[in-house]
Design a protein that fits this description.
By secondary structure, the chain is α+β, with helices and mostly antiparallel strands. The chain contains 13 helices and nine strands. The strands form three sheets. Strands 4-3-6-5 form a four-stranded antiparallel beta sheet, with helices on both faces. The chain has a three-stranded antiparallel beta sheet with strand order 2-1-9. A two-stranded antiparallel ribbon has the order 7-8.
Protein backbone atom coordinates (compact mmCIF):
# COMPACT_ATOMS: atom_id res chain seq x y z
CA UNK A 1 0.00 0.00 0.00
CA UNK A 2 1.38 3.34 -1.05
CA UNK A 3 0.82 6.17 1.46
CA UNK A 4 1.30 9.90 1.06
CA UNK A 5 1.70 10.41 4.78
CA UNK A 6 4.54 8.87 6.72
CA UNK A 7 3.72 6.05 9.11
CA UNK A 8 6.29 3.83 10.82
CA UNK A 9 5.70 0.94 13.17
CA UNK A 10 7.26 1.49 16.57
CA UNK A 11 9.83 -1.21 15.82
CA UNK A 12 11.21 1.01 13.06
CA UNK A 13 11.84 3.65 15.68
CA UNK A 14 14.13 1.30 17.53
CA UNK A 15 16.12 0.27 14.50
CA UNK A 16 16.49 3.92 13.52
CA UNK A 17 18.28 4.50 16.79
CA UNK A 18 16.01 7.40 17.69
CA UNK A 19 13.75 7.93 20.65
CA UNK A 20 10.70 8.30 18.41
CA UNK A 21 9.31 9.20 15.05
CA UNK A 22 6.59 11.52 13.74
CA UNK A 23 3.60 9.43 12.73
CA UNK A 24 2.59 11.76 9.98
CA UNK A 25 3.31 15.41 9.66
CA UNK A 26 1.46 18.52 8.62
CA UNK A 27 4.69 20.47 8.26
CA UNK A 28 5.83 21.06 4.66
CA UNK A 29 8.48 18.56 3.59
CA UNK A 30 11.01 21.32 3.00
CA UNK A 31 10.77 22.65 6.55
CA UNK A 32 13.97 21.11 7.86
CA UNK A 33 16.67 22.63 10.03
CA UNK A 34 19.03 24.91 8.15
CA UNK A 35 21.49 23.26 5.79
CA UNK A 36 25.03 22.39 6.78
CA UNK A 37 27.54 25.21 6.41
CA UNK A 38 29.48 25.53 3.19
CA UNK A 39 32.51 23.25 3.05
CA UNK A 40 34.86 26.24 2.84
CA UNK A 41 33.43 27.62 6.07
CA UNK A 42 33.88 24.31 7.80
CA UNK A 43 37.46 24.06 6.58
CA UNK A 44 38.18 27.59 7.75
CA UNK A 45 36.89 26.68 11.21
CA UNK A 46 39.00 23.52 11.28
CA UNK A 47 42.12 25.35 10.14
CA UNK A 48 41.64 28.04 12.77
CA UNK A 49 41.47 25.39 15.48
CA UNK A 50 38.21 26.81 16.79
CA UNK A 51 36.41 24.42 19.14
CA UNK A 52 32.69 25.05 19.37
CA UNK A 53 31.21 24.33 22.79
CA UNK A 54 27.75 22.78 22.94
CA UNK A 55 25.24 22.08 25.68
CA UNK A 56 23.73 18.64 26.21
CA UNK A 57 20.29 17.74 27.49
CA UNK A 58 20.00 16.09 30.91
CA UNK A 59 17.28 13.60 29.94
CA UNK A 60 17.24 11.87 33.31
CA UNK A 61 16.68 15.14 35.14
CA UNK A 62 14.01 16.10 32.65
CA UNK A 63 12.25 12.77 33.11
CA UNK A 64 12.41 13.02 36.90
CA UNK A 65 10.88 16.50 36.92
CA UNK A 66 7.36 14.97 36.95
CA UNK A 67 5.76 11.73 38.01
CA UNK A 68 5.17 9.30 35.10
CA UNK A 69 1.40 9.22 35.57
CA UNK A 70 0.98 12.97 36.12
CA UNK A 71 -1.59 14.45 33.73
CA UNK A 72 0.12 17.33 31.94
CA UNK A 73 -2.30 17.94 29.05
CA UNK A 74 -5.37 16.73 27.22
CA UNK A 75 -5.76 15.87 23.56
CA UNK A 76 -9.23 15.47 22.09
CA UNK A 77 -10.52 14.98 25.59
CA UNK A 78 -8.00 12.26 26.47
CA UNK A 79 -5.50 12.70 29.26
CA UNK A 80 -1.85 12.99 28.28
CA UNK A 81 0.45 11.65 30.98
CA UNK A 82 3.94 12.89 31.58
CA UNK A 83 5.57 9.60 30.46
CA UNK A 84 3.95 9.92 27.01
CA UNK A 85 4.68 13.62 26.71
CA UNK A 86 8.26 13.11 27.91
CA UNK A 87 8.84 10.45 25.26
CA UNK A 88 8.04 12.88 22.45
CA UNK A 89 9.97 15.67 24.15
CA UNK A 90 12.99 13.38 24.37
CA UNK A 91 12.79 12.47 20.72
CA UNK A 92 12.62 16.07 19.56
CA UNK A 93 15.28 17.23 21.99
CA UNK A 94 17.58 14.46 20.77
CA UNK A 95 16.95 15.53 17.16
CA UNK A 96 17.91 19.11 17.91
CA UNK A 97 20.86 18.16 20.10
CA UNK A 98 22.27 15.85 17.43
CA UNK A 99 21.85 18.55 14.80
CA UNK A 100 23.58 21.19 16.91
CA UNK A 101 26.45 18.81 17.66
CA UNK A 102 26.79 17.93 13.99
CA UNK A 103 26.96 21.58 13.04
CA UNK A 104 29.53 22.13 15.79
CA UNK A 105 31.74 19.52 14.16
CA UNK A 106 31.78 21.82 11.12
CA UNK A 107 32.70 24.77 13.28
CA UNK A 108 29.23 26.30 13.18
CA UNK A 109 27.79 27.72 16.38
CA UNK A 110 24.06 27.15 16.81
CA UNK A 111 22.18 28.20 19.89
CA UNK A 112 18.97 26.70 21.24
CA UNK A 113 17.58 30.23 20.93
CA UNK A 114 18.24 30.40 17.17
CA UNK A 115 15.31 30.00 14.75
CA UNK A 116 15.02 26.35 13.80
CA UNK A 117 14.34 27.17 10.14
CA UNK A 118 14.89 30.15 7.90
CA UNK A 119 11.15 30.65 7.53
CA UNK A 120 10.26 30.36 11.20
CA UNK A 121 10.65 32.61 14.21
CA UNK A 122 10.30 29.51 16.40
CA UNK A 123 13.55 28.70 18.20
CA UNK A 124 15.04 25.24 18.57
CA UNK A 125 14.02 25.32 22.23
CA UNK A 126 10.43 26.12 21.26
CA UNK A 127 10.48 23.50 18.50
CA UNK A 128 10.84 20.68 21.05
CA UNK A 129 7.49 21.02 22.89
CA UNK A 130 5.61 22.31 19.82
CA UNK A 131 6.57 19.27 17.78
CA UNK A 132 5.80 16.99 20.73
CA UNK A 133 2.28 18.46 20.80
CA UNK A 134 1.91 17.84 17.06
CA UNK A 135 3.01 14.23 17.36
CA UNK A 136 0.58 13.52 20.18
CA UNK A 137 -2.20 15.12 18.13
CA UNK A 138 -1.22 12.99 15.15
CA UNK A 139 -1.39 9.74 17.10
CA UNK A 140 -4.74 10.70 18.59
CA UNK A 141 -6.04 11.76 15.19
CA UNK A 142 -5.37 8.34 13.68
CA UNK A 143 -7.09 6.63 16.59
CA UNK A 144 -10.06 9.00 16.41
CA UNK A 145 -10.33 8.57 12.65
CA UNK A 146 -10.39 4.80 13.08
CA UNK A 147 -13.12 5.04 15.72
CA UNK A 148 -15.25 7.44 13.66
CA UNK A 149 -14.98 5.25 10.54
CA UNK A 150 -15.45 1.89 12.28
CA UNK A 151 -11.96 0.73 11.40
CA UNK A 152 -11.27 -2.49 13.28
CA UNK A 153 -8.35 -4.86 13.52
CA UNK A 154 -9.35 -8.37 12.51
CA UNK A 155 -8.22 -11.50 14.33
CA UNK A 156 -5.82 -12.08 11.45
CA UNK A 157 -4.23 -8.66 11.90
CA UNK A 158 -4.01 -9.13 15.68
CA UNK A 159 -2.23 -12.44 15.08
CA UNK A 160 0.12 -10.67 12.68
CA UNK A 161 0.85 -8.07 15.36
CA UNK A 162 1.70 -10.83 17.84
CA UNK A 163 4.10 -12.41 15.35
CA UNK A 164 5.65 -9.04 14.62
CA UNK A 165 6.18 -8.45 18.33
CA UNK A 166 7.97 -11.80 18.69
CA UNK A 167 10.15 -10.98 15.70
CA UNK A 168 10.96 -7.54 17.11
CA UNK A 169 11.91 -8.91 20.50
CA UNK A 170 14.17 -11.51 18.88
CA UNK A 171 15.77 -8.88 16.65
CA UNK A 172 16.60 -6.34 19.32
CA UNK A 173 17.07 -8.52 22.40
CA UNK A 174 18.01 -11.99 21.12
CA UNK A 175 16.19 -15.16 20.12
CA UNK A 176 15.46 -16.31 23.66
CA UNK A 177 14.68 -12.89 25.13
CA UNK A 178 11.61 -12.41 27.29
CA UNK A 179 9.06 -9.61 27.14
CA UNK A 180 10.49 -8.34 30.42
CA UNK A 181 13.87 -7.94 28.74
CA UNK A 182 12.20 -6.19 25.84
CA UNK A 183 10.47 -3.80 28.24
CA UNK A 184 13.85 -3.00 29.75
CA UNK A 185 15.17 -2.32 26.26
CA UNK A 186 12.32 0.09 25.62
CA UNK A 187 13.00 1.76 28.95
CA UNK A 188 16.47 2.71 27.72
CA UNK A 189 14.78 4.70 24.96
CA UNK A 190 12.38 6.30 27.47
CA UNK A 191 9.57 4.34 25.86
CA UNK A 192 7.00 2.58 28.02
CA UNK A 193 5.58 -0.72 26.86
CA UNK A 194 2.12 0.80 27.00
CA UNK A 195 3.08 3.57 24.60
CA UNK A 196 4.97 1.15 22.35
CA UNK A 197 1.90 -1.07 22.03
CA UNK A 198 -0.30 1.95 21.39
CA UNK A 199 1.95 3.26 18.63
CA UNK A 200 2.14 -0.17 17.06
CA UNK A 201 -1.64 -0.48 17.14
CA UNK A 202 -1.96 3.03 15.72
CA UNK A 203 0.22 2.01 12.78
CA UNK A 204 -1.96 -0.99 12.02
CA UNK A 205 -5.11 1.10 12.42
CA UNK A 206 -3.76 3.56 9.89
CA UNK A 207 -2.99 0.85 7.36
CA UNK A 208 -6.26 -0.95 7.99
CA UNK A 209 -8.14 2.31 7.58
CA UNK A 210 -6.73 2.68 4.08
CA UNK A 211 -7.46 -0.93 3.18
CA UNK A 212 -10.98 -0.86 4.60
CA UNK A 213 -11.91 2.36 2.82
CA UNK A 214 -10.04 1.99 -0.48
CA UNK A 215 -8.78 -1.59 -0.79
CA UNK A 216 -5.20 -2.85 -0.80
CA UNK A 217 -4.25 -0.87 -3.91
CA UNK A 218 -7.15 1.57 -4.21
CA UNK A 219 -9.35 -0.87 -6.09
CA UNK A 220 -12.44 0.32 -4.20
CA UNK A 221 -12.14 3.79 -5.74
CA UNK A 222 -14.74 4.09 -8.50
CA UNK A 223 -13.99 5.05 -12.10
CA UNK A 224 -15.41 8.55 -11.78
CA UNK A 225 -13.28 9.44 -8.76
CA UNK A 226 -10.13 8.02 -10.34
CA UNK A 227 -10.67 9.88 -13.61
CA UNK A 228 -11.52 13.07 -11.70
CA UNK A 229 -8.17 12.79 -9.90
CA UNK A 230 -6.34 12.55 -13.23
CA UNK A 231 -8.28 15.46 -14.72
CA UNK A 232 -7.84 17.67 -11.67
CA UNK A 233 -4.09 17.11 -11.83
CA UNK A 234 -3.94 17.65 -15.62
CA UNK A 235 -2.70 14.18 -16.49
CA UNK A 236 -2.26 13.19 -20.14
CA UNK A 237 -2.29 9.62 -21.48
CA UNK A 238 -0.48 8.56 -24.63
CA UNK A 239 1.30 5.60 -26.15
CA UNK A 240 4.12 5.72 -28.67
CA UNK A 241 6.39 3.76 -30.94
CA UNK A 242 9.96 5.01 -30.70
CA UNK A 243 12.55 4.46 -33.40
CA UNK A 244 15.80 5.65 -31.89
CA UNK A 245 18.31 7.88 -33.64
CA UNK A 246 20.93 7.53 -30.90
CA UNK A 247 22.71 4.54 -29.46
CA UNK A 248 20.76 3.46 -26.36
CA UNK A 249 23.95 2.50 -24.54
CA UNK A 250 26.21 5.45 -25.35
CA UNK A 251 23.77 8.18 -26.35
CA UNK A 252 25.83 8.87 -29.47
CA UNK A 253 24.03 9.70 -32.73
CA UNK A 254 23.56 6.90 -35.23
CA UNK A 255 24.90 7.25 -38.76
CA UNK A 256 22.91 9.30 -41.28
CA UNK A 257 21.83 6.27 -43.29
CA UNK A 258 20.35 4.55 -40.23
CA UNK A 259 18.62 7.76 -39.10
CA UNK A 260 17.07 8.18 -42.54
CA UNK A 261 15.83 4.60 -42.45
CA UNK A 262 14.31 5.15 -39.01
CA UNK A 263 12.51 8.26 -40.25
CA UNK A 264 11.13 6.42 -43.25
CA UNK A 265 9.90 3.51 -41.13
CA UNK A 266 8.26 5.95 -38.68
CA UNK A 267 6.41 7.60 -41.61
CA UNK A 268 5.19 4.21 -42.83
CA UNK A 269 3.97 3.23 -39.35
CA UNK A 270 2.20 6.55 -38.86
CA UNK A 271 0.50 6.36 -42.26
CA UNK A 272 -0.76 2.83 -41.63
CA UNK A 273 -2.16 3.71 -38.23
CA UNK A 274 -3.73 6.98 -39.38
CA UNK A 275 -5.71 5.01 -41.97
CA UNK A 276 -7.52 2.96 -39.31
CA UNK A 277 -10.80 4.52 -38.14
CA UNK A 278 -12.04 1.93 -35.63
CA UNK A 279 -10.48 2.67 -32.18
CA UNK A 280 -10.30 -1.00 -31.15
CA UNK A 281 -8.69 -2.10 -34.41
CA UNK A 282 -6.34 0.87 -34.14
CA UNK A 283 -5.23 -0.08 -30.62
CA UNK A 284 -4.74 -3.69 -31.63
CA UNK A 285 -2.59 -2.80 -34.63
CA UNK A 286 -0.70 -0.18 -32.62
CA UNK A 287 0.17 -2.86 -30.05
CA UNK A 288 1.46 -5.18 -32.79
CA UNK A 289 3.63 -2.51 -34.37
CA UNK A 290 4.90 -1.36 -31.00
CA UNK A 291 5.94 -4.90 -30.13
CA UNK A 292 7.77 -5.20 -33.44
CA UNK A 293 9.45 -1.82 -33.75
CA UNK A 294 9.42 0.20 -30.52
CA UNK A 295 12.88 0.68 -29.03
CA UNK A 296 11.75 2.43 -25.84
CA UNK A 297 13.14 0.54 -22.85
CA UNK A 298 10.18 1.79 -20.80
CA UNK A 299 7.70 -0.27 -22.81
CA UNK A 300 8.18 -3.20 -20.43
CA UNK A 301 7.17 -1.18 -17.38
CA UNK A 302 4.55 0.86 -19.23
CA UNK A 303 3.17 -1.49 -21.91
CA UNK A 304 -0.01 0.56 -22.35
CA UNK A 305 1.78 3.89 -22.63
CA UNK A 306 2.41 6.77 -20.28
CA UNK A 307 0.07 8.77 -18.07
CA UNK A 308 1.94 11.90 -17.06
CA UNK A 309 1.62 15.45 -15.81
CA UNK A 310 2.75 18.57 -17.70
CA UNK A 311 6.49 19.13 -17.67
CA UNK A 312 7.52 15.49 -17.17
CA UNK A 313 8.10 14.54 -20.83
CA UNK A 314 10.37 16.12 -23.44
CA UNK A 315 8.76 19.23 -24.91
CA UNK A 316 8.20 17.88 -28.44
CA UNK A 317 6.48 14.76 -27.12
CA UNK A 318 4.24 16.69 -24.73
CA UNK A 319 3.32 19.40 -27.22
CA UNK A 320 2.28 16.74 -29.73
CA UNK A 321 0.13 14.96 -27.16
CA UNK A 322 -1.63 18.20 -26.31
CA UNK A 323 -2.45 18.78 -29.98
CA UNK A 324 -4.01 15.33 -30.49
CA UNK A 325 -7.56 14.13 -29.85
CA UNK A 326 -8.25 10.78 -28.23
CA UNK A 327 -7.27 7.92 -30.55
CA UNK A 328 -5.58 10.31 -32.98
CA UNK A 329 -2.15 9.27 -34.30
CA UNK A 330 0.59 11.81 -34.91
CA UNK A 331 3.02 12.17 -37.75
CA UNK A 332 6.56 11.18 -36.71
CA UNK A 333 7.89 13.53 -34.04
CA UNK A 334 11.65 13.96 -33.64
CA UNK A 335 13.12 14.35 -30.14
CA UNK A 336 16.59 13.83 -28.74
CA UNK A 337 15.73 10.12 -28.50
CA UNK A 338 14.51 9.55 -32.01
CA UNK A 339 11.28 9.44 -34.03
CA UNK A 340 8.03 8.93 -32.10
CA UNK A 341 4.69 7.88 -33.52
CA UNK A 342 2.26 8.93 -30.80
CA UNK A 343 -1.35 8.02 -30.10
CA UNK A 344 -3.33 10.11 -27.63
CA UNK A 345 -5.39 7.93 -25.29
CA UNK A 346 -8.39 8.60 -23.06
CA UNK A 347 -7.65 8.63 -19.35
CA UNK A 348 -7.91 5.17 -17.81
CA UNK A 349 -8.34 4.50 -14.06
CA UNK A 350 -6.37 1.24 -14.30
CA UNK A 351 -3.43 2.25 -16.48
CA UNK A 352 -0.10 2.34 -14.63
CA UNK A 353 0.80 5.94 -13.83
CA UNK A 354 3.99 5.41 -11.83
CA UNK A 355 5.74 3.01 -9.49
CA UNK A 356 6.26 3.30 -5.75
CA UNK A 357 9.72 3.22 -4.22
CA UNK A 358 9.09 -0.46 -3.54
CA UNK A 359 8.32 -1.09 -7.21
CA UNK A 360 4.55 -1.38 -6.79
CA UNK A 361 2.63 -0.21 -9.88
CA UNK A 362 0.31 2.69 -9.04
CA UNK A 363 -2.83 3.47 -10.99
CA UNK A 364 -5.17 6.44 -10.86
CA UNK A 365 -7.27 4.52 -8.34
CA UNK A 366 -4.36 4.12 -5.92
CA UNK A 367 -3.17 7.70 -6.38
CA UNK A 368 -6.69 9.03 -5.85
CA UNK A 369 -7.04 6.88 -2.73
CA UNK A 370 -3.71 8.13 -1.38
CA UNK A 371 -4.64 11.74 -1.96
CA UNK A 372 -8.08 11.43 -0.40
CA UNK A 373 -6.82 9.47 2.61
CA UNK A 374 -4.09 12.02 3.24
CA UNK A 375 -6.63 14.83 2.95
CA UNK A 376 -9.01 13.15 5.38
CA UNK A 377 -6.19 12.54 7.85
CA UNK A 378 -5.10 16.16 7.57
CA UNK A 379 -8.67 17.27 8.25
CA UNK A 380 -8.80 14.97 11.28
CA UNK A 381 -5.56 16.47 12.56
CA UNK A 382 -6.74 20.04 12.02
CA UNK A 383 -9.68 19.55 14.35
CA UNK A 384 -7.56 17.92 17.07
CA UNK A 385 -7.47 19.95 20.29
CA UNK A 386 -4.40 19.93 22.55
CA UNK A 387 -4.34 21.84 25.83
CA UNK A 388 -2.00 21.87 28.82
CA UNK A 389 -3.40 21.51 32.30
CA UNK A 390 -3.44 24.67 34.36
CA UNK A 391 -0.06 25.56 35.78
CA UNK A 392 2.03 23.21 33.60
CA UNK A 393 4.92 24.62 31.59
CA UNK A 394 8.07 23.25 29.99
CA UNK A 395 11.31 24.76 28.75
CA UNK A 396 14.06 22.52 27.42
CA UNK A 397 16.66 25.12 28.39
CA UNK A 398 16.00 24.28 32.05
CA UNK A 399 17.65 20.91 31.39
CA UNK A 400 20.75 21.95 29.42
CA UNK A 401 24.13 21.36 30.97
Amino acid sequence: MKKLVVILAAVCILFAGAVGYISYTNRPADEEPAAEPETSQALDAEESGTEVQTLSVDYDAMRASHEPDEIVATCNGQDVRWDEYFYWLSYNAAQVENYINTMASYGATISWDDPWSQDSAESYAEYVPVNAEEQIKQVNSIEDFAAENNVVLSDEILAEMDEQLKSTIASVCGEDATEEEFNEYLEQAYLTRELYDRMNRMNYLYQQGYTQLYGETGELVDDAAAIAYLEDNEYISANHILLMTVDSATGEALDEETVAAQEQKAKEIAAELQAIDDPQLLLARFAELKEEYCEDTGKVSYPDGYTFTPGTMVTEFEDTCNALEDYQVSDPVLTSYGYHVIIRLPLDPDRIVEYSYEGTPLTARSLAANAEYASRMDAQYEKAAFAYVSGFSFNIKDFLK
